[in-house]
Design a protein that fits this description.
Structural class: alpha/beta
CATH architecture of one domain: Alpha-Beta Barrel
Order of helices and strands: HHHEHHEHHEHEHHEHEEHEHHHEH
Distance between the termini: 70 Å
CATH class of one domain: Alpha Beta
CATH superfamily of one domain: Glycosidases
Radius of gyration: 26 Å
Number of helices: 16
Bound molecules: alpha-D-galactopyranose
Mean pLDDT: 91
Shape: globular
């Protein structure tokens, strides 16, 4: 009883006020509520694919949980911001063709169906690479290297089978990935050692036979470094001289806070554009962690002593680094927008910081922050910088 009477007596503060004041406060509160609601709704966040719709496509590399739509955090981000997709792993040889007589298209069928469901430009990645390719491809039954003829036959069968299955649906293929070394010469991979330099041309020919309408790409990293870029330019010129249509170069874009410079990025895009081909950014991210040599990193176990040195942002990203990364994204997008006539697509290598390969490469178990969306799926400062670069461009 007492409780009730107490409650009745307690008039809300606002009711005790003079009518005019009360109305003003109610209006202000209403306004505040509506702006807060609008801000917190996802529709307020600009869509990357919309911002850049007159410039280039915006893509993301997806893992299996993402294209099967099990990843509830990534799903709305992918639908809102990206109009192109690349499979992070599913079409690599070891997954799609794990044994001589075994093709497994379960994952890649799901990937392609996902892209079609949302009307996205679907990329195939990758047909020929020195990594994530099973040993059996290069060996006979007793583990000895096979002949050039046998390897070429295997390459033809693989490409015809994989490209042929998605003919007309996968629109562009990374045909050859990373064929060139840092000094610009051909990488001494098993492809190169067994077949010789023309394995690249052969792979393009087979892909063209399998789907004459597909766009065919050469994809590589660190092409912003002069010697490697020169090597790639020579390779593409050679392919062109042989009548092979290379639709675009893929600049992977695994960037750092201090590399590449704006000048290097600009010069690289300009140099490839001169060949009359398109230039795509295919695996974009900006690593914020201390660099470490790849081979050493892969062998390393992150002991508590090494944590502080190599994994300094395990709990959160310092504001200064976050700002620096956002500045870097802004300046690089400034260059991309400048070259929008030759750039067809900018693809990020992942969706959120939680699922980037850089948490486990080259050191396992670090906490990296290379993308535009944080671990909760919220847009970061870097996202705003990219949006601003798009808005500042004259359309
Ligand atoms: C390379 C490959 C990609 C991917 C990344 C790291 O850049 O092209 O497929 O493996 O490494 O994940």
């Amino acid at each position: 009883m007492r409780k009730d009477s107490k409650r009745r007596r307690r008039k809300p503060m606002i009711m005790k006020m003079k009518p005019l004041r009360r109305t003003l406060i109610q209006i202000a509160a209403g306004l505040l509520l509506s702006t807060t609601l609008a801000k917190s709704s996802r529709t307020e966040i600009p869509s990357l694919k919309e911002i850049f719709k007159n410039d280039f496509m915006i893509g993301a590399a997806l893992n299996r949980r993402q294209f099967s739509e099990e990843d509830a955090r990534a799903a709305p981000i992918i639908r809102a911001h990206f109009n192109s997709i690349t499979p992070e792993n599913q079409l690599k040889w070891m997954y799609v063709h794990p044994a001589p007589d075994k093709y497994d298209f379960t994952g890649s069928d799901q990937y392609v169906a996902f892209g079609e469901k949302y009307g996205m430009y679907i990329v195939g990645h990758t047909l020929v690479w020195h990594r994530q390719t099973p040993d059996w491809v290069f060996e006979d039954g007793s583990g000895k290297p096979v002949s050039r003829e046998i390897l070429l036959n295997r390459l033809r069968d693989h490409i015809h089978r994989v490209v042929g299955r998605y003919k007309g649906r996968i629109k562009g293929w990374d045909v050859v990935n990373e064929a060139i070394d840092a000094n610009g010469t051909m990488r001494q991979s098993k492809w190169m050692k067994i077949i010789g330099e023309d394995y690249v041309a052969k792979a393009f020919e087979f892909a063209h036979e399998a789907d004459p309408d597909a766009q065919l790409y050469y994809n590589d990293y660190s092409l912003e470094n002069e010697p490697k870029r020169t090597g790639a330019i020579q390779l593409i010129k050679k392919l062109q001289a042989e009548g092979i249509a290379v639709a675009a170069i893929g600049l992977q874009g695994h960037n750092k806070l201090d590399w590449p410079t704006v000048e290097q990025q600009d010069a690289t895009i300009a140099a490839f554009a001169k060949l009359g081909i398109k230039v795509n950014i295919t695996e974009l991210d900006i690593d914020v962690l201390p660099a470490i040599d790849e081979e050493a990193g892969l062998r390393l176990k992150l002991t508590p002593e090494l944590q502080a040195k190599l994994n300094p942002f395990a709990s959160s990203l310092p504001e200064a680094i976050s700002k620096e990364q956002s500045r870097r994204y802004g300046e690089l997008f400034g260059v991309y927008v400048k070259y929008r006539d030759v750039i067809d697509r900018i693809t990020f290598w992942g969706v959120t910081d939680g699922d980037t390969w850089l948490n486990n490469w080259p050191v396992r178990g670090r906490t990296n922050y290379p993308l535009l969306f944080d671990r909760q799926g919220k847009p970061k400062l870097a996202f705003d910088a990219v949006v601003n670069a798009g808005l500042n461009a004259k359309h």
